Each structure stands twice: as C-alpha cells, then as structure tokens.
Sequence to fold (162 residues):
Amino acid sequence: QLGEQVSANTCLYKRNPTGQMTNWQRLLTYSDYEDIIKDKKMKNFLHLHFIDQHFSTAYNVNFLKHFVVFNVFKNKEKILNCVVPLIIKIRGRFEVYYNRKLYEGGDIDNAFIMWCHILKTKCNSKPYTMDFSILTTSLFTMDSSDEENRIEGFFTLEDDDL
Fold:
C-alpha cells in the first residue's frame, strides 16, 4: 500500500527472483563451506558476518554499525570526519578508508586484514575507546620456536605403521 513501511525481505524479493532467494537460503543451510565460498558475493557476505559475530561475542561491539559503510554517498560527510579506519564497499569491492586515504582491499578478507593493520599501526589498536590489541597482536605476531618442533624420546616404527 502507498505510504506503508517496506520490509527488507520485500525489497529483496523485488530485486531478486524468489528462486534466487531460496537458492541462497538452501546454499547457506545445507552446503559445505567449500561450495559456499565458490560464489564470491556469498563468501564476502558470510565472512563479513563471521567478523561481525566475532566482534559481538568478544568485544560486545557491532562491527557492521561502527566500522563498515555500504552507502558512501549517503554518509560522505561522516566518512570524511571519521577518526578511525573504515571498511567501505565501493563498486562491489571492499576498500579501507583512513585519514582521507583509500587503501585497496578487494574482498572482505583482504580489507579486514588491511583494516586491522591500519588499526594497529596508526591507531595503536584502539579505535575510539575500544581496545582491539588482542586481535591485532594475534593476527600479526608469529610466535614459533625450535623447541616446539622438536620431538623428544625414542620411537619404534613397526612395518604396520608405515
């Protein structure tokens, strides 16, 4: 009806055929992970929500609300005045924006790594008053030593073990 609020599902059904929506639902519900990520858009959607759920669980932060921008033109002034790195979706790609510079990301995986790198190097892993140093340290620190790879003791291999 004229003047009524339109739900998100109604908009999706108008833009995409019902069969496509059903196909996406079936793919996400019943397919293996390897089959899901063959579709680039579905992979980005899934990984973006994995990231959002991690931030919701570990930090009680809505990642999509605070650090991801889907509509650049609507939020142009806010983006220009932002003091933290943002992941921006432009022309079907995810790019990282910080301090009036746009860093190439590509898909959400690369953009998230770039976002974390900028967060660590330029913001000391602390956007606003949040502290993501555990995340950035675990992503960018390699902690391996020869002691971990050494096997101690004597082992006898039987012919059946080979």
